[in-house]
Design goal:
The chain has 4 helices and 5 strands, in the order H-E-E-H-E-H-E-E-H. With 134 residues, it is of the alpha+beta class. It has a 5-stranded mixed sheet. Strand 1 and strand 2 form a beta hairpin. Helix 2 runs parallel beside helix 3. The protein is globular and about 40 Å long. The N terminus is likely disordered. It binds tetrahydrodeoxyuridine (THU). Tetrahydrodeoxyuridine binds next to helix 2.
Amino acid sequence: MPGSDGVGVDLVAAARRAREHAHAAYSQFKVGAALETADGTVVTGCNIENASYGLTICAERVAMFKALSEGHRTFTRIAIVADTEAPTPPCGACRQILWEFGGDLEVTLANLSDITGLHRLKDLLPLPFDSRLL
Ligand code: THU
């Protein structure tokens, strides 16, 4: 099935649904994310923009902060969806946050019809700054 990762919960479908809630009034670039916890719970997020542009928060960080605030601490996978032909990978800030709390997540990138990329977070953030260095 196009857009299905074929493993367990359809995380991509959840990210597509989450994207519909994006508040992207300035960029018109809507993003959805779905994060899977170790117990199989799916926590979603979308980007939320602000007239003070720098206060914008990406879909991935919304999903992770929601999950953390609900008590989840162990994560396996994240799916990220945008309506683009080319994959939309997480920005640098999101990579750092995802690494801190999710470790070497499996990262599935997709658009509204297809999967466009499959990565490990450690490949997207090859030399991370983290607590081991403090
Ligand atoms: N954005 C995300 O939510 N996640 C990404 O992976 C890339 C960028 C958002 C931030 C902003 O609201 C819009 O996309 C354009 O940068």
